[in-house]
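Quick start: what a row looks like.
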Amino acid sequence: MYFLTGWPRRLLCPLKSAEEPFHIQPSCQRFYFALLSETQLSIWFSRPSVLIVSYIESAKAAAQFGFYQKAEWKPDDSMIAVATANGYILLFDVLGGGEDKYLYEPVYPKGSPRVKVTPGFKEEQCAPALSLELKKPVDLEAPITSLQTLQEDLLVCTADGYLHVLHWDGLGSNGRKAICLTTIPFSLDLQSARGGPSLDLDGVYICCMEYCLTLDGFAVVLSDGRLGFITPLSNSIAADLQGVWAADVADGTCVAVNNKYRLMAFGCASGSVLVYMIDTTTGSMQLSHKLELTPKHYPDIYNKTGAVKLICWSPDYSVVMVTWECGGLSLWSVFGAHLICTLGEDFAHHSDGTKKDPLKISSMSWGAEGYHLWVIPNRQERRKQEDEEQDVEMVSPPHPCLQAGILQFHFIKSALTVNPCTSNQEQVLLHGEDRLYLTCGDPTQIHGNSDAHANLHPRDGSPLHHPSNPDSSLSQGLSTLLGHKHWHVVQIHSTYLESNWPIRFAAIDTAGQCMAVAGRRGFAHYSLFTRKWKLFGNITQEQSMTVTGGLAWWKDFVVVACYNFTDQQEQLRFYQRASNLDNAFASVTKLHSDTLLLNVFRDMVILFRADCSICLYSIERRNDGPTPSVSVALLQEVSMSRYIPHPALVVSVTLTSVRTETGISLKAPQQACTAESIMLNLAGQLIMLQRDRSGPQVRDKETPAVNKKLLPFCPPVVLAQCVENVWTTCRSNKKKRHLLEALWLSCGEAGMKVWLPLFPRDNRKPHSFLSRRIMLPFHINIYPLAVLFEDALVLGATNETILYDGLQGPSEPLEALFPYCTVERTSQIYLHHILRQLLVRNLGEQALMLAQSCASLPYFPHVLELMVHVVLEEEATSREPIPDPLLPTVAKFITEFPLFLQTIVHCARKTEYALWNYLFAAVGNPKDLFEECLMAQDLDTAASYLIILQNMEVPAVSRQHATLLFNTALEQGKWDLCRHMIRFLKAIGSGEMESPPPTPSTQEPSSTGGFEFFRNRSISLSQSADSISTGKFNLQKTFSMPSGASAKGRDVECAENMYIDMMLWRHARHLLEQVRLRDLGCFSAQLGFELIGWLCRERNRVARVDDFVSALTRLHKDFLWPFPVIPVGSFSSPLKNGRCRSVLSTQLLKSQSADSLLNSEMDTAPPSAATTNHTWMDSLVQSTKDTETASSAHSNQNSPQTHDAFLSLLTNKVEEYSVGSATDLTETSSVVDGDWTMVDENSSTLSLSQAELEHISMELANKGPHKSQVQLRYLLHVFMEAGCLEWCVVIGLILRDANVIKQVISFLDSPEVPPETAQSIRNGLLAVDAWASSDCLGYKPFLNLIQPQLQQLMNSTSEQVQPDAFQPATQSCKLAASEGPAGAAAPRVEDSRGVPAPLGLALPSLEPAGVFSRPPPEDSPPEQTEEQGEEEGTYDCTLS
């Protein structure tokens, strides 16, 4: 509404005087201000803020009249009346300056276009020279308590109980009348006033009085503190007067009236302001609301303010400023929403926390249009300050004779205060004295138009407006309206401001890209696209019109209701945005009466006129001329004079599509697009006029559109009281009908109200007893300035303060007492309030429909949380028992949404522990909810429930549930969660066996195995589980040295560590049993599990290999390791070219069953491929056509084609690993989104012979990703250290590393190796050989290579072996020998952990970190870690 900005400005008086001003009185238009000191009357101009003239009373006259006390202007600014202490009224004529017309004139630089101005233009920018002449004084012979001007009369109240009526002009005896207060009958209401005076008024006089035009009467404060209202019963002011008084109030101090809302604000000695209205039926005074500081927000000062000293309504009557005897300023909206107070926060404290003395104020007044508040500080304040200045600043001469001056506070205000037009209700537009503030984002984001710049206007580069589709949503994106806290500030063009200050109206268009402002004369508009203002080219045209009824935008036209001085008539004008601003391009319609308000709804304009009638016009764009124009046709006139006592009382008028009667249903939402009703805000009462459909209805199809007569309107209905603003939209959206067809009201201290439509569900027939709409009130913490309908948000603004200490000390200037003020954008969700109100009223079905329509909003989970939280806080902390608690209903409502479990636990963890029992009594046992989370595979939410269980249950229950979650997290590889669970289980066990710990996050974990487990203390993680199985897998961490202080503590910790380790061992056993070596490696690296020590213990138990073939195939699958391809050279076939080879590899893959290789869901059984050697040989003679189909790359004849066929298959199924295998092809191959671009043989940079190339490419095709190779080597190292020889053989086979096999077989003779191990290895190798012969010929060359070792193994056992099983194939031997691994046997090393391995293979000791990814640096979801590891970096391929 109104917001303080910047620092106050200080105005110093240039004239030397020992007197200081104590009273300020503005003229009618607020362009002049009269300042009084004891014997001086000064007149100041508003812009520029300068002193124009000062009248100083002579000492003789001052002795006769006494000091000046009060002043009042004649309405035409031609006279000033001053009341003096001795009961005189001094009347001054204010005269123009004659020859020297101007005191200050603007000076323009040479060549400025504004130098040659039209006649009469210059005076708008000059400060006029005035003079004051004293006329004959009037002696009223009693002290004067109040002055009040009427049109031709001046009312003066005196302390002898009289009310004097003086004529401004005829000041003889005939122009004067005195009314004694005792003759005025006072009663509680006008109906009981017949029986004579009911109030004893002897010795009572009026000490403060103000005239209210729209109530036609005087609000008075009597000297005994009672409040009253005096109204003339006939036209003449001096005739029969009748008074009513307010019951039960006897401490009134001052009064101010609000003409627009017919309110009287009375200040009281208690410090509160009572706002009264007059009941229209009985004429009694009724309390509307109170303005007072609350102990909640101002605990230190709320009851220490002293009496109310001054009350000041703003010029537009939308806000009121109050000050007290103890000082300070406070601003409220008209119906009591508190906006600013300078008695708290940064206003009341220095930055070091010391309290400031509040500024005491002797007089204040609003400036023109409410942009400034002129404040005169108390005399004592200034004297004290000046004394200090004299003490301190002895160097520079003090200025005791300079007046300390006036403070000017600067305000910016919402455009809705004076121009409540609805062309854009989703933008906040504020305007200050010389700038606009708007909440718009990047123009290209508006409506998400990708072609926003494609349809630019040829002339000004702004987008062309297309006719909007009624059903299309024009809602601006949330990113646009909420993207940041900053305002878009547009400086108003200085040339326009110079001559047309102050700005009176501002409007913004639907897209939020164009603004228009209107000042004293003319108007100007601005485009955000071009960043340029458009002003009238002809200044005469600008100065010959003034905007009276407001501004609005319609498509790309500015709509203006204005008065034309040249023709002396009211007009409705449309100016096209893209054309020059000139009357030649305007569409003008003459109007018969003065327009007070203007609004636009779709293609209609609604005007409210001074004769209390409403006019509807249809508007249509026409493109037939050289420039677009608008044709306007009068549709309907509605007279409202029966219902509106005074035209100035109408705050806003709006056309809406809202209607109440039964015709509206779910089947006919398109009717929402037509203008169905008129909403009129009459002095805070919202009145609705609906179209009358009771007459005979004619079907639309039967009447041509031209002859269609608009339906008349029904009599008005009052919808709500105390309404400050109204928002409604003409858009429609079938998914969010509740929000788009609702009416939103801002009601001051009562918060907001929404008039919500109720729809029958599933097109059912509505209940006859169910109302079609319901009014729901709700409170919000911000002052609403705009409503985002679909997004369920209210936008507003708030004052923020910044302390500035640069000027502290005794010489601190007065304005530095105040912090620097800024205005920030705010927004608030309101959906939870509405849902709650519907549930309170047993409208759960409607609440569910509304909530489901908004479930896609990003903050919907927050809405549900807020709803639970607010109800829980209210009910659980209530002192009285609640007969019908709402929390169970809310809990049941939330179970309808998938976010139920998260909502409850997040709410509980943000609420104090004392309320948990009440919460879970309503929503269910946390143990059951925990189990639901596990069943729903939502482990992170389950982890949050553990915190609840730990606080509410005994440790045994917590441990049981934690163990369950730990096992599940292990099985799913949620390593982050696992680390938290280890920490949590330790926290439960460490010395807290009986009492539940307050929270688990206080325990720091001991860091074991060189890993730091928990960087963050939060146990609630963000990602959700993909799969869950609640089997018997357990898992845990490694040994750590107990560090407890006492023996008991150490025992507990040891037991706890043992418990955790048991679970970890169990999980490791489970992984090994299922041949999940890759998972075992990740598990070990992530949780610091000491794999080697554990494997040593399990060497002869679970670390055995029962089925070598299935273990081998499982490793191929887990590590994405390709099955070896047999080289073509090993067949005696005439087809030697690469084309044939590619056929072979493709067929090989098919026979191998690609699914078994690549499908991640494959079981561990060996692939059931029934192909034999014979079928492979047959396949070689397939036709060329098949060959070309099989190869997915180019048909060049070089051998890399082989691998292309292989890799394409890989790419199709397992994208994340394709990078590793792809880059191994060749250094010069390039990878483009999974397409392999092969290097042409002719352009290859490698000069290799055909044989070498074939050999290298074959070797590459038989290798897996580089990362898998590193991981396998690491696992080989681990198994060697632990002496698990069977696993070493399996890994040696997959790596095809003959040295490993040799080393293992040489170990078998050692006495440490049990004979069953040797037997198992022998049987396993036999099984692998049989499997290779039938299903995977690619392994035969390697098996032939290690044939001598196998023979040795056979001989060392008692059984005889058939020798023909290992017949060598010469070429295969050569090939396999050449592709032996680079890593030869190195000397045996001790395990780095200090456990000597009984059997050691010397491989370079690889740190696990490089192999299996460690915990990510931040809390990135663990399930992504492996892929990240796979894809980071590139893997180089070395060509030997």
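That is the whole record. The longest strand covers residues 629-639. The chain is about 25% helix and 25% strand.
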